[in-house]
Amino acid sequence: MKGSLISTAIAEPYAQALMSVALSHDLADAFGEECRSLVTLLEKSPDLEAFIASPVIKEIDKKTVLGKIMGEGTNLYLLNFLMLLIDKRRIIFLEKICRQYLTLLRKLTNTVLAEVTSAHKLSSEQSESIANKIEELTGAQGVEIKTRIDPNLIGGITIKVGSQVFDASLRGQLRRVSLSLGGIA
Predict the structure, then answer these.
(1) pTM, full prediction
(2) pLDDT of residue 169
(3) Alpha-helical regions (H) of the chain
(4) Domains identified in the chain and CATH numbers
(5) Closest-CA residue to 55 (of 90, 27, 26)
């Protein structure tokens, strides 16, 4: 159900409400950082995701755990929003809401999301160079890079921005050569 239309229909109004609160208090970027952290945490911890999604676990326990995870420095508006999600039994959609919020934030700041896949870990200079090139190609004011390592690329990188894919990988080049020679990739 995570990727379904129903979860999107539920997540979108909550993300818009969070954006509205963030904008009215000049906290859009701060909430964006918190949302990125939450998404990363939920991706890396299936146990946490199962915990907050479980209908068996009491709401007070979920509130306590989320409060400790967020820490004392968390903005009160954001913390109250998370508690509201628990009260309304919508906490199961937390990751989707955070992703939707980040999409809204990128639109607001004219930032694009670039999914970069490389054979090896990129250095900070390489990431910066890629970001500059993507800004140049897209006309965006900023680039948010999400990296992934895929040793099957052999070398080089692939970059996905929206529906566009730029394949500068060795595997892609070998596939193109094979096709031009009449072989099957």
Answers:
(1) 0.79
(2) 72
(3) 5-24, 28-44, 46-53, 59-70, 76-87, 94-109, 124-138, 170-180
(4) 5-107 (1.10.520.20), 111-180 (no CATH)
(5) 90
